[in-house]
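thought: fold this chain, then report.
action: predict
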Amino acid sequence: MLKYPCLVLDHDDTVVQTMKTLSYPFFCLELDQFRPGATMSLDDYILQCHHLGFADMCRKCFGFTDEELKLEHKQWMDYIMTQIPDPFPGIDRIIHRQKEEGGILCVVSHSHSDNILRDYDAHFGVRPDAVYGWERPPHQCKPNPWPLKDIMANYGLKPEEILVVDDMKLACMMAKPLGIQVAFANWDDMGVPELSAEMESLCDFAFKTTEELEKFLFE
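observation:
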């Protein structure tokens, strides 16, 4: 019997590696386009995305307008369509075991559903049962609890039957009001102790490797 009949996975920097190799370098290019001369270090980028989310970080730190964010998003979508990020070692075993043992696998992410499904097809050969991506209306995106409410309604699940696995605190903002537990995916060492300490205090569990999470879930 599965410890959690339903796993809800984040995508970027939980399942696939994007922050250091794709999203931050691309953001620096975009920042140079929209705000020439402005800069942000990788550590600050990670922290502000953690605290605010990407769009609000752009608004509050650099005064991006809605039109600029729409253009930035279009350029990001064009870019990411040509890039397939590598998965974290061992995450494939968790995905396959959850599915093979009869569990439900969902994704709630700020990535676009098309990219998420492409990555699952490329790396895992299986697809999630449901994907809640960034293309949805704002009230249906993390940190709004709506995706988890929809998952519970669609699959007849109780809060204790779900585990959210994520690397950012927006997951806690989404899950905690519903009494759903959150596991901190800490296997991508961001090198920002402040972030790790906050996540460990906010989340119900913290795992430094995918192997630790796999053992917790299935053994």
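thought: worth noting. The chain is about 50% helix and 10% strand.
final: tokens above.
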